[in-house]
Amino acid sequence: MNTQVVIIGAGPSGLMLGHLLRQSGIDAVIIERQTREHVEGRIRAGVLEDTTTNILDQLGINTRLHAEGLPHGGVCLADGERLIHIDIKKLTGKPVMVYGQTEVTKDLIDAAPERGLEILWEVEQVNLQDVESDAPYVSFTRDGNEERIDARFIAGCDGYHGPSRKAIPASVGREFERVYPFGWLGILSDVPPCHEELIYANHERGFALASMRSLTRSRYYIQVSLDEKIEDWPDDRLWDELEIRLGPAVAPHIQRGPALEKSIAPLRSYVFEPMRHGSLFLAGDSAHIVPPTGAKGLNLAASDVAYLSEALIAWFKSQDEAGINGYSEKALARVWKSERFSWQLTKLMHRFPEDGPFERRMQVAELEYIASSEAAQTSIAENYVGLPL
Fold first, then answer.
1. Nearest C-alpha neighbor of 77 from the set 288, 303, 250, 218
2. Contact predicate 388/99, CB 8 Å
3. Does the reported pTM lie above 0.85?
4. How many other CB atoms are found less than 10 A from the CB of residue 26?
5. Could you report the per-residue pLDDT of 166-200, keeping only the tens digit for each?
6. Which of 20, 66, 170, 212 measures 20 to 30 Å from 186, CA to CA?
7. Contact 26, 316 (CB under 8 A)
């Protein structure tokens, strides 16, 4: 098989990139190791910057987004006693959109056949070959048969554990990582949200988050140690802890329900440089991971795709190499700013095992400053809604 761009990974970044290329008449094929059902069933984040919604609008894959998505003009920080409201819309002129990554993925997959975007599911033993040349290819097995796709470029959108990043020699790449000494225990339940906006809570017992997927489905998280196990957290214990950490202003509004899904996710900050090597480009989680505190994971993938699609389209349409040559530097500049914000918010809102009374008082003082300073709130709002491309 031959194509112009082979995309590894049918997550949101790979799907958005494939659609953008097809919209410009560029041939692209996506390969994915999982089944379609598995990919569509993954529970992920749900806060979209306008970087992401603009791509979906540009593609015209936005009907459900605007019918079911929830525009949010603000976000709240809680300190155990009160809510500190940050008016994002007032401070930046832009809202965010609450619409689950699961739904974004479904919309992009559903639209693929009519737009000529081919997706090969359940491929195995993926190998990237000749990535330093002008004629790279990807070999794999599917249904027990060995197959190969030749292309001009390869886009690695296959996440942290995928093969794309591993195809870049260790002598070329450099990794930066911070592994956090705790995880997030999350519960998804068909109950109305406890508040009209997301709430990030700093409590002496640890972090908590009140989020949502719709007006009838809520997503909650609490900080737990890495040795905690799901079976140690029956639903009632988790709901009790959420009421304590979210505080007295929020607790009366929490409606309890059975868990549709419950899991513990570790947290890390990770960046790989460079994001291009020869004819191979990395995008999304294959190149960077952020803790979910700042709601940047999917949105960073979307900004990568915005830069990469523009660069590839310019190359195929006019042989303009400026975009592909500058892709890594341009994408990483935004990645590091988003990493900074996610790390900063994680430090502010979580309890770290090594922290003592001084660090706790610093968190309290910072939250007091944010509560009283429009400048501090503006800084948070600008980063939360998404920095300009």
1. 250
2. no
3. yes
4. 20
5. 999 999 999 999 999 999 999 999 999 999 999 99
6. 66
7. yes
